[in-house]
Amino acid sequence: MQKISKSFGGVPALIEASLEVMPAEIMALVGQNGAGKSTMIKILNGAYVRDEGSISFNGTPWTAASPQQAQRAGISTIFQEINLIGYRSVAENIFLGREPKRGFGLLDWAKMNAESAALLKRFDVKVDVREPLERFSTAIQQMVAIARAVSFDARLVIMDEPTSSLDEAEVAVLLRTIRQLKAEGVAVIFVSHKLDELYEVCDRVTIMRDGRTVQVSAMKDISKLHLVAAMLGRDLAEVKKRGATAFEESSGANIGGELLQARNIAVGHRVHDASLDIRKGEIVGLAGLLGSGRTETARAIFAADAKTSGDITFNGQPAAFKGPADAIKAGMGYCSEDRKAQGIVPGMSVAENLTLALMPALTRSGMLDEAKQREVVDRFIKEIGIKCAGPDQKIRELSGGNQQKVLLARWLCMNPKLLILDEPTRGIDVGAKAEIQMLIRRLASNGLGVLMISSELEEIVEGADRVFVLREGKTVAEFDHQNMTESKVMHAMAHGHDT
Amino acid sequence: MSAVSVTKKEPRNFNRAAFFQRYGVGLALILLIIFNLIFTPNFATAQTLAVNLTQVCTIVIVGVGMTLVIATGGIDLSVGSLMAIAGAFSPMFFTGQLIPVDNLYFGIALGIAFPVLIAGMFGLFNGWLVTKFSIQPIIATLVLFIAGRGIAQVSTNGDLQVFKVPEFQAIAIGRVLGVPFQVWIMLAIVIVAAFILHRTVFGRQVLAVGGNEAAARLSGIPVSRVKFLVYFISGLCSGVAGLIVIAMNSAADANLIGLGMELDAIAAVVVGGTLLSGGRATIIGTLLGALVIQLVRYTLLANGVPDPAALVVKAGLIVLAVWLQRQEQA
């Protein structure tokens, strides 16, 4: 794929990006959120149409009209969410859409089952192919998806984060399968955020950032640290001067006693051993690559998801919250990373969105105290500079930055002790971003504890008083403000140990 | 995400779909009344008014509960069957079949309170299925849609219970200020529900759950309790409607009470302008929606169009209402 460009509604997603894979080669494709990996894959498999650029496959020019056509031509894609039919048998899934027939439109079940079993055996998977697919583990379902891909005589298999919901043993099986594919001469494009896997199985890596291909290298020639640096767009030699964000330097004088302590938190497959603590008046950063379990850890602290194990102490009390309502009562607030899906109630007004969590305090014998609501809303619109036509404007009509301010105000009007901010400035224009960053610092200097998750390294390094680094669901490093540099944080994100 | 930090201006140009969405029902009602005043003989009589209002009473009462359920993003198919349950149980109380009661008025009080509560309890069962097991509301309430009528039929052995208790029947056919008592009940329920929806914390919570359930949960709103309550209220409303039906007929037929009511109620809610996906609801709209559907049918009948044809027009109204909703969302 050469010089591929693609825009969505005028916003470029890919700018002259390129990707090259040799036969029997396992190519890692890495990049941050929004780097363009998915767009690249979808252009290759025919889900999107490219604006510019050229693609050749097996030496001939290539354009797929649809993923189905790409599959027949030898390019198969296996997505994170398995798109097979759970209720049908393994064999049916493998032959879906091209079932062997016996005439009169009857299915040749014997042939279908035998061929399926033979196919899976190549990958050392021994299952009863007549069983419904959903009876098997995610890993086996993924094997079936791969077997299906191979049964099309795929020459190139694209895997989009196949290991994100697998446990360690299952990952090992999958990686073995990938090597098996390679041995049969099939090329693989492997998208993953788990660096260890990439180093274990891949031959080369293509690194994308902001819609461009920034580096292609043999896996053995690039260190994890260099790889992460290239992904984040950081030059190792020159750590940028301070001042990229609007966070003011913190004196540290206002930092008080311990507010929250989380020990050995585990949640499902994503978080295994996360620990962190936050003091009053402190901004604590939570850094890590995509899929390192940052959001999951934050949600577990807020009791939005149940944790598998671990202990949380909040404000000196063991926190046994049953749900967000309990966490809120104890004095926590949580701004989720997905503003649209989990933050705003689009059909409601600015005022209604702002007081969503405050409602219990606005209640007078079951009725809403409209006067008090008005007062709170007016105060916060002014105080944090929410630009809107008025409190009754629908929130969906506001810009992203102003929506985010309303969501911040939703928590601030509760007078919380701890505010968890998951990507507080994602998708927000520069001006609003600076305002929000200044606001966060101001709040912390008034004694609010803040846990800030951010994928932007400078936001963490400049904004946080301390930072914890998560890597594959484990807390691997902690830096205080003096020892915190972008390269150290990056190193911990890549390697794990804090040196 | 837009890279502009100014707020989007309200569209200046006249948004026709949004206008009809908002005022369309009221407008349609006014047009229908004007049309009838001109063309339909004897339209402006107390008799006509009473006939039309009693026709919509039960639909509106059930529609109020349905509006709240739909506002949370759910739906309640069991309303008709819950009406049948309430209607089937009630005579057993005031005719003294179940427990002998000496005082007639006490018996009637029991015959009103218990069946309504029983219907409410079945509503709670709906809420339990929806919240505890995360069953889609349409399936969860299908359970009682089917089983509810069965329960009503079994408890009456499928027999028609005929009674003559004018003191009880007054709840439907008694008149206050010349207006049937059931109309007053309907108005009271509409006013209380509209107040709850727009002025109370519970109402706000209902709309928040329907507008964005994940956000509501993360804001500490007791999502399950809110859902429990709306299905409970829907059950209570169905109970009341069931009693009105048997009071009008002076007979309880478990096979027929509330038959097809779920669809009439949903139609009124949709035509009234409540969003089927939840998050926006109007009780007054449901009242107007029911009135429009009824008046269209009356207009056609009064002007010699046969009833089956009127049904087609009713379907057309629903299509129009749904189309308007989609226009606004797009």
Notes on the protein architecture:
The complex is a heterodimer of chains A (499) and B (330). Chain A has 499 residues and is α/β, with parallel strands linked by helices. Chain A folds into two domains: 2-222, Rossmann fold (3-Layer(aba) Sandwich), CATH 3.40.50.300; 258-495, Rossmann fold (3-Layer(aba) Sandwich), CATH 3.40.50.300. Chain A is 33% helix and 23% strand. Chain A is built from 17 helices and 23 strands. A two-stranded antiparallel ribbon of chain B has the order 1-4. The two termini of chain B are 18 Å apart. In chain B, helix 2 (46-71) crosses helix 11 (261-272). In chain B, strand 2 (175-176) and strand 3 form a beta hairpin. Chain B is an all-alpha fold. The model of chain B is unreliable at 1-13 (pLDDT under 50). The longest helix of chain B has 29 residues, at 104-132. Chain B has a single domain, classed as ABC transporter involved in vitamin B12 uptake, BtuC (Orthogonal Bundle). Helices cover 73% and strands 2% of the residues of chain B. Classes of the chains: A alpha/beta (499), B mainly alpha (330). Chain A binds chain B through residues 302, 304, 323-325, 327-329, 334, 336, 341-348, 352, 356-357, 359-360, 362-363, 366-368, 387-389, 393, 397-402, 410, 427-429, 431-432, and chain B through 1-10, 199-202, 204-205, 207-208, 211-212, 214-222, 275, 279-280.
CATH topology of the largest domain in chain A: Rossmann fold
Topology pattern of chain B, helix = H, strand = E: HHHHHEHEEHHHHEHHH
Biggest sheet of chain A, open or closed, and with what strands and sense? 6 strands, mixed
Mean pLDDT of chain A: 84
Number of strands of chain B: 4
CATH superfamily of the largest domain in chain A: P-loop containing nucleotide triphosphate hydrolases
- Please give the number of β-strands of chain A: 23
Q: Which descriptors would you attach to this protein?
A:
heterodimer, A: Rossmann fold, Rossmann fold, 2 domains, 33% helix, B: 330 residues, ABC transporter involved in vitamin B12 uptake, BtuC, two-stranded antiparallel sheet, two-stranded antiparallel ribbon, 73% helix
